[in-house]
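testing teh design pipeline on a random one, pls ignore if ur not involved
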């Protein structure tokens, strides 16, 4: 059973629908006692870093997520929240589960507009159960202006190129993250969710 964390900052139902296509049971909740019953957690995210962290803190979810010892997958902003520091709107603390900072993409090419919206190919840099069966160069769907820059190269699983090297997939222990949206990324995205569900 996968618990999808509801803290008012995610496309919860599209994520749940993707798992439903796979025959995987999920529930959506912001209640810690309910979330404790899950085998795995998914942390979605749409919006700005400081507001999301404030909501997690207000709901008591920060310490709960930090203490979680089973698989957890952060999606888009949810992945960025796993890092130490965010620099969107204002500089502030994240969950500090993966070392590094979230900063604005600076592509340097005027043809590359922000936000980064659309399909981009993955450069797989090291193996991970999350990407089992995903081919190097597989296309995923991105929507973001900020990205997480890790200070531990061992946590970087895959990147993409958008005028600079942009972190696309991370892992540290039981914590995983995808900057793109698997639920919007066709069969390859569904395979990532299947891999997560089977951990």
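output:
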């Amino acid at each position: 059973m996968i618990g999808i964390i509801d803290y008012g900052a995610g496309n919860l139902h599209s994520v749940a629908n993707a798992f439903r296509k796979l025959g995987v049971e999920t529930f959506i909740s912001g209640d810690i006692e309910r979330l404790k019953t899950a085998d795995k957690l998914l942390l979605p995210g749409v919006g700005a870093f400081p507001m999301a962290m404030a909501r997690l803190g207000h709901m008591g979810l920060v310490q709960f997520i930090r203490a979680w010892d089973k698989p957890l997958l952060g999606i888009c902003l949810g992945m960025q929240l796993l890092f130490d520091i965010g620099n969107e709107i204002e500089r502030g603390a994240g969950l500090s589960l993966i070392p590094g900072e979230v900063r604005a993409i600076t592509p340097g090419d005027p043809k590359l507009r922000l936000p980064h919206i659309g399909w981009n190919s993955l450069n797989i840099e090291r193996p991970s159960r999350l990407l089992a069966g995903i081919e190097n160069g597989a296309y995923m769907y991105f929507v973001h202006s900020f990205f997480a820059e890790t200070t531990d190269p061992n946590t970087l699983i895959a990147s993409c190129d958008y005028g600079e090297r942009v972190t696309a997939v991370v892992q540290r222990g039981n914590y995983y993250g995808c900057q793109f949206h698997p639920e919007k990324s066709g069969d390859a995205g569904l395979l990532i969710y299947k891999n997560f569900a089977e951990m």
